[in-house]
Every structure is written in structure tokens, then in C-alpha cells.
Amino acid sequence: MTTLFISDLHLDAKLPQLSAAFAQFMQLQAPAADTLFILGDFFEVWIGDDDRSEFNLGIAELLREFTDNGGELYLMVGNRDFLMGQDFADECGAMLLDDPALIDLYGVPTLLMHGDSLCTRDTDYMAFRHLSRSPEWQQQMLSQPLEVRRAFADQARQQSQAHNRVQAADITDVTPAEVARVMQEYGVQRLIHGHTHRPARHELELNGETAERIVLGDWGSHLWWLQAEPDGTLELCQQPIDAYLAK
Hints:
Elements: E1 2-6, H1 16-28, E2 33-39, H2 54-68, E3 72-76, H3 86-92, E4 95-96, E5 101-105, E6 108-112, H4 123-132, H5 135-142, H6 146-166, H7 169-172, H8 176-186, E7 190-193, E8 200-206, E9 209-215, E10 222-228, E11 234-240, H9 241-245
Parallel strand pairs: 1-2, 2-3, 3-4, 6-7, 7-9
Antiparallel strand pairs: 1-10, 5-6, 8-9, 10-11
């Protein structure tokens, strides 16, 4: 009854090595798991479920094979693929998760997030996040032709990269006070998230008890995943992408 967590793969048709690594992950790691959680930024960009490119359909097919074989799949959107919707989830046989989402992980209440909402010191991004998550903004965006949406996404990606280059590291990382606030709101001692590209396991004190924040890694030079077992074992795993593809 293994459960796997991944995030921040940033899959892109322009990065075939990355999609090949994901395909191999679904062949090697996923079959031994009962459940797979994808916590946002699965794609580098997602302009709508009606973008039925060969690449997008191929990724959906990999996920569908997992669910057709009895696996449970949960998808959470991130800051790159927040326009992902129910149609794509249905095509994969997945369930969409709210952000945050509270689950019972082998008896331990665990909060799942993408992680971008925890970076409250990045005020410019938080303003865009508030706007882009509104149903009105999304409806207006999805009503535009695919080419218009694609051009907007390319421009937004360039602006985001430029923004991150000039921001101090602590601005683009989570705000500790916000982490504590959210965990207290949901009454949990464990939080799993991605987004920051700073994979680690952090111990913290919360309500006089030891708590943990687990940060999933982004997929680039390495693959990262969190593996959870029914006995309570949690392992943050990594593999160099070149060595992984050589298996």
C-alpha cells in the first residue's frame, strides 16, 4: 500500500528527456504504489483542457494506464498549470484536489499544498495569484483562442523567470509564520508541499510538539519523490535523471 508524492515536474514538449524520465517513473515506481499524488506544476504551462496536443495526450495516457490498473491518482494545480480542470482529470481517471487538502496518511492527518500560497513575502506574485485564481479571470482567459492563451503563457513565464532572478531567496521561499498558521488552522503536525524547489525535511515546533514540513523537489537534473509506507516510513527519494534513464 505504498503512496507516492511528486510535484514540480514542469513537463514540456521541448524537454523530451524529462517526459522520458516520467514515463520510466510510471513504469518502475508507480506500479508498486496504490496511490499517486501530484502536487502542482506537473506541466510547465497549461493553457486549458482543450489544448489536446500530442504531448498532452501522451502524458494523459501514462496516467490513465496507472488508474486503469487500479491506482488512485490525485491532481493538485500549481502556479504553472492552474488552468487544469475536470476534463483533464477525467481523461486521466484522476480526482482534483483542493489546495490545501487534508488527508489521512496511514493514520496521520497530513496537509497537502502546492506551496505557492505560503510565499506571502512575494507580494507581487501573491497579487497575481489572487487574480488568476478568480473564476471570472479564468473564464475570460479560457474564452480566448488557444494561440492567444499560448502567447500569454509564454509572456507570463518570461516575466516570472525575470522576477525570480531579482528576488532575494527568502522572498521566494515560504514564510514560516504562514506555515505555522495554516498547519494550526487545519490541526496537523505534518505538511507536504512543493513549489520552492528546495527539497528537504524540516522539523519545527508547533503547539509545543514536534511537527514536520516536507518539501518535494523539482524535476530537472534529478527526479524527486516522497514514498510513504503503511508502517509510517517516509523517504524523500532522488535519482539523477541520466542514471535513471540508463536503467
